[in-house]
């Protein structure tokens, strides 16, 4: 059973100057191959942290909104990428705050964040409801089975993977390294 993390844990982590793994070249390649980015498309990066993947999406041509419920993460993201056009950030709890004012997106991404979503079925419904026709949900995550016991909670289980991949017209996957896989799930 995964222990729910409070937002204060993330805030303290970011306030300490810590961050997560930088975006790998392979992730950009996975995105290019599976989601075919191009200028003019829109993206929502959920659980964006300090914004590294959102920046990558903007560089690939998307107009991007990055959201995270850690105020500290959003503060850092907002001050880090002032030169990158088409990129903005907002503090928001992607599970409990409304998405109603959001438009539809061509891509919704969750990099190293999907494992921490507590109510995954409800979240998946929100994602589908906010994807444009033909849009995709792009997830980068470790699989719990590939992680040591002490870190299993940061990955998704085989059951969670199966649930996540159900009901899409296409499911593509790209192995990034021994522990991380990218999935692009298309409406
Ligand atoms: C492991 S970090 C990954 C951050 C970033 N995507 C990256 O790759 O560096 C997970 C992030 O998800 C955010 N998060 C978790 N649950 C969330 C929720 N319900 N709403 C918004 N953000 C959430 C956390 O605050 C944290 O920044």
Automatic annotation (TrEMBL):
The keyword Protease does not apply. Pfam families: Methyltransf_23. InterPro entries: SAM-dependent_MTases_sf. GO terms for biological process: antibiotic biosynthetic process. GO terms for molecular function: methyltransferase activity. Keywords: Plasmid. This is SLV.37. It comes from Streptomyces lavendulae. The lineage of its organism: Bacteria, Bacillati, Actinomycetota, Actinomycetes, Kitasatosporales.
